[in-house]
Design goal:
Layout: E1 2-4, H1 20-33, E2 37-41, H2 47-56, E3 65-71, H3 83-90, E4 95-101, H4 104-111, H5 115-131, E5 135-141, H6 143-149, H7 151-163, E6 168-173, H8 180-193, E7 198-202, H9 209-218, E8 223-226, H10 240-250, H11 264-275, E9 292-293, H12 296-304, E10 322-323, H13 331-340, H14 350-364, H15 373-383, E11 392-402, E12 408-418, E13 421-429, H16 432-444, E14 455-463, E15 474-481, E16 486-493, H17 496-520
Parallel strand pairs: 1-2, 1-8, 2-3, 3-4, 4-5, 5-6, 6-7, 7-8, 9-10
Antiparallel strand pairs: 11-12, 12-13, 14-15, 15-16
Length: 521
């Protein structure tokens, strides 16, 4: 069973803050993926989490069960009078996840209570919730550190939770410092003395969270807790985007309902968007570059059989293969890319080798096509006669005017030719690049009204040779989008305006080219 704690433990990661609306959207997406449990939050810790549970009453989840998180009762108190437990019950969920101390050091120093009282807190809290018909999952906090320090007491905490009626005992590597072979030795004793189903909750501080979680699956644990995209405090929690496909594709066990694994990449990227976090390019299974191939020898082998350099079929997790064309490319890279674009390319043709040479020369000048697929596609289609530029630049003038108030006004004047017509326009903008973009759009919209549907969504500048100071060559990457897709283009020059012009022109030409090709199809 996959237990997702993105909304609770994941939200404690640096730079992550979910609104109630965000949490509702993510919960629905996790249910769409097919996880067994969604830990919605700790209703006793803040009003936002309690509001989330109230709002979720209006949604019927297809597969997942919603769990509320809380601690055991406070030392010296009673369960009935504990505010955390009262808030948990107010959430009106059927699953309660309760964490309790299993490290004697924490009991004595953090809780400042006795070891016996801690056992009472665990026993009474679980029993109280079971009496009210809830499924209770017990998270044994700091279990691995506790076991190393005082194994008998750590085991006593588990035995107490089991005897109180806990449905699952989750061993937590809260500090994330346990190594796989340490975990393996420890599991042996736990399974000898405990018959209650077991789960694991691993943090990634030593980089072993996924490995430890998979080892627990191999040893018969029924519940794996983690977060989407490794969100969580410090170094994050175990990444479910790695755990789930490994369970299903490598261990031949069921983690999600049939057919849901193909939704993994989509869900990963969706949650990153909601969290306003960038997707790591090299994230296993779901990263944009997880199945990207650059070396010519690799691609040559891929053309014969994808298993030569891929451990799974990327479509199984909803991702796709990418072949990068760069200064490291050979004929194989170009052939693969041409096949993707339905270009009729002969590997022995002089024109093919000429294109490879051109790409390598451009990359030596600073162009980087692996991050600008749209510019690369334009280059290839032009080289093989499938497309030409949709407009020509006659003149471009950028005017910067500083006012006494201290601000700058940017204006761009553009003269372009489309067919037999010439358009001469001017426009202001927030900076010279924005003015250039506005003026060019103004000039072309009369002929190509579809340009109004595209927007510049990202703009990045990188200095390529910093020793040259302000005369350094720069690379500009522009990301654009319309209602149906995103694409990236590149420009390189010692002049940042010229580099920006190259990238913007490629972006517009690419969109117009795609529309024409789609009309032909």
């Amino acid at each position: 069973m996959i237990y997702d704690t993105t909304l609770r433990d994941g939200s404690q990661g640096e730079g992550i803050s979910f609104s109630v609306d965000d949490k509702v959207k993510i919960a629905k997406k996790l249910d769409y993926l097919g996880v067994s449990y969604i830990e919605g939050g700790w209703p006793g810790s803040n009003p936002k989490d309690l509001d989330f549970f109230r709002q979720m009453k209006g949604y019927e989840l297809e597969h997942a069960r919603l769990a509320a998180f809380s601690s055991t009762r406070k030392p010296g108190g009673t369960v009935k009078q504990d505010n955390n437990i009262s808030s948990l019950l107010a959430a009106e969920v059927s699953v309660a996840t309760i964490f309790g101390k299993s490290w004697d050091f924490h009991v004595l120093r953090a809780l400042e209570t006795s070891l016996e009282e801690n056992l009472n807190m665990v026993r009474e809290t679980i029993a109280y919730l079971k009496e009210r018909g809830l499924e209770v999952i017990f998270d044994a906090e700091h279990f691995f550190d506790g076991f190393k320090n005082n194994p008998d007491y750590a085991m006593q905490v588990l035995i107490t939770a089991a005897s109180a009626g806990a449905d699952c005992l989750v061993l937590c590597d809260t500090n994330g410092g346990t190594l796989p072979w340490e975990l393996d030795e420890l599991i042996g004793r736990v399974q000898k003395e405990i018959k209650t189903p077991l789960g694991i909750h691993a943090h990634n501080d030593s980089g072993c969270a996924v490995s430890n979680s998979l080892l627990a699956v191999q040893r018969g644990f029924i519940q794996i807790q983690g977060t989407i995209n490794n969100y969580g405090e410090r170094c994050g929690n175990a990444d479910l985007c790695s755990i789930i496909p490994n369970i299903e594709l490598k261990m031949n066990k069921r983690g999600l309902p049939p057919g849901r694994l193909k939704r993994l990449t989509e869900v990963s990227h969706y949650i990153n968007e909601i969290a306003n976090m960038s997707s790591p390019n090299n994230q296993p299974f779901v990263g944009y570059g997880a199945f990207a191939h650059k070396g010519g020898i690799h691609v040559s082998a891929l053309l014969k059989d994808s298993l030569t350099y891929e451990h799974i079929n990327p479509e199984e997790v909803g991702n796709h293969r990418r072949v990068l064309v760069s200064e490291l490319s050979g004929i194989s890279n170009l052939l693969y890319k041409a096949k993707e674009l339905n270009l009729d390319v002969n590997s022995y043709d002089a024109e093919t080798r000429k294109v490879i040479k051109q790409i390598k020369e451009l990359e030596s000048e600073g162009f980087q096509f692996e991050g600008a697929d749209a510019s690369l596609e334009l280059l290839l289609r032009k080289a093989f006669g499938q497309v030409s530029d949709f407009f020509q630049l006659n003149n471009l003038k950028i005017i910067l005017e500083k006012h006494e108030e201290g601000g700058f006004i940017s204006e761009a004047v553009v003269k372009v030719t489309v067919g037999d017509e010439t358009f001469h326009t001017a426009a202001e903008g927030d900076g010279p690049v924005n003015a250039l973009d506005n003026s060019l759009r103004k000039a072309l919209t009369e002929v190509y009204p579809e340009i109004s549907e595209m927007h510049l969504t990202d703009y990045k500048v990188r200095v390529l040779d910093g020793k040259q100071g302000t005369a350094a060559r720069v690379r500009v990457l522009v990301e654009s989008s319309n209602p149906t897709e995103k694409w990236s283009t590149v420009g390189v020059s010692e002049n940042i305006i010229e580099a920006s012009w190259q990238a913007i022109v490629d972006s517009i030409n690419y969109m117009l080219m795609k529309k024409r090709l789609n009309q032909v199809d």
